[in-house]
Amino acid sequence: MKDFEKWKLPNDYHCVYVLENGRDAYIGETLVAEVRAQQHRNKYWNLNFKRMHIITSDLMEETPAKHYERLLIRLMKVDGLFNIVNGNDGYKTHYQRQNEFELHFDKLWSQLVEKKLVKRKSFQFVLNLNTYKYSPYITFTKEQIDALTYIMNILNSDETEPYSEKYDRRPILINGSAGTGKTVVATSLFHYLRNDNSYKDKKIALVVANEQMRNILKDVFNETCEGLSKKDVISPIELTKQKYDIIICDEVHALRRGENLVFYKKHFEAGNERLGLDNTHNELDWILEQSEYQILFYDEKQMVKRSDIRSDYVKEKIHNNKLRGFRPIELKTQMRNKAGDSYVNYIYDILYQRSIQKQTFENFDFKLYNSFVEMRREISRKEDIYGLSKLCGGYAWKWISKNDASIPDIVIEDEKIRWNRDKEKWIGNMDSRYEMGSIYTLRGLDLNYIGLVIGPDLYFDKKDNEIKVNKKNLYSNDVKKNATEEEIKEYVLNTYAVLFTRAIEGTYIYVCDDNLREYFKHFVDYI
Known about the structure:
Layout: E1 15-20, E2 24-30, H1 33-43, E3 51-56, H2 62-79, E4 83-84, H3 98-114, H4 142-157, E5 172-176, H5 182-195, E6 204-208, H6 211-224, E7 233-234, H7 236-239, E8 244-250, H8 265-274, H9 283-290, E9 291-298, H10 311-319, E10 327-331, H11 342-351, E11 365-369, H12 372-386, E12 389-393, E13 410-412, E14 415-419, E15 435-437, H13 439-442, E16 447-454, E17 458-461, E18 466-469, H14 477-480, H15 485-500, E19 503-511, H16 514-520, E20 525-526
Parallel strand pairs: 2-4, 5-9, 5-10, 6-7, 6-8, 8-9, 11-19, 11-20, 12-15, 12-16, 14-15, 16-19
Antiparallel strand pairs: 1-2, 1-3, 13-14, 17-18
Helix pairs in contact: 4-5, 11-15
């Protein structure tokens, strides 16, 4: 390093810098890089620093620069490529736009790799030995690899630690809509942590609220993941019985609060009592109470019944920096269905009647049927060829076959169908082709094809030009008990949206209400 007076920097804002000689490195922040370079040359003359790498932008201010300095010192120490000679880890910071700058910092890591300032290139820690859908041995997308890398960077830098005693440790919150691969990232993260020497003594659990998904993941952990056990996957109520160092929670939106719990109510109340909490607390509170580190996967659009934790409560509990704050990571790319990233938003736009134009999806079989018989026949044919092809529906029919399997719950065009009886492993049950899957079973799961029946719980009011809920045909106390009209409509629309996004290869739709079918014809190819 020399000729400091001739340096031409891109701006005169604050910057973070890395001084290095190929073996040792010093990390700092400054407003005037050339002056600091001269000062360090005099102070660390024996280290013979040869290069100064400068990180800056037009947004860089003093506080975020100090924030980046602290993160880099900690992470580059963990990375181990350089001997970091800093005498301390820098200064703790707390500021209004912290989350925004943390997301920018995530993108910086790949640039550090390119400059050969770090050696841990990505989170590719497993071999592609097994392509089972939820196994951590699958091939990852770049976005998933990046998300996993960011999570480990956050843990290794202790970035979630509280700024002061009046704050709590910040959870890591991974936002992702349906089909963005949240479950794959969650299971892969668990596998990595369990096999990383730095975390081998940590008590870790994967919390999954949905029973069907929980049982699938138990089987995956037990059968395909070396060093893992089905005991690693737990229900929220099990969490109240012991504390953990790290909790990974898949689908936070499926956690429950004390509303419309029916048979689960006594277990829920016992869980709160076990923790010394009253019944205004919920399963998210249990996670925060029973673990030091929390890694939460969340999609607020998938709130489908009154017992689901409200998004405003999640925001109050962890979003608000005055209460706790969170460390954000985002998953944006649609991984489940072949329709691509625009499909999920398109479905919500249709159901919520937002201003839209018709879209078609080249690699996704998306059809609206006039005949339920024909749609059911096609789904049955897809089941024979591809498997994982099922009927599903909302809340429009009573579960009258619960005590007598000979009685059909649903009759459409003289076709007789039962609701799914096996909540634990319905997907692989031979009877599933003769049954209709509910949101309680299918939430979080992938299918190849679905035949979605939009029942008489929804109708289109031509006079008001509005999709409405017919509560007389809404047979779910989980949804309508103690709920406002606005909440009921939100739950029902979100339920259908979630079912719309279950399929990989194609979604077939049958709509019971004639006017609503006419509305859907504007947006889906009709046969």
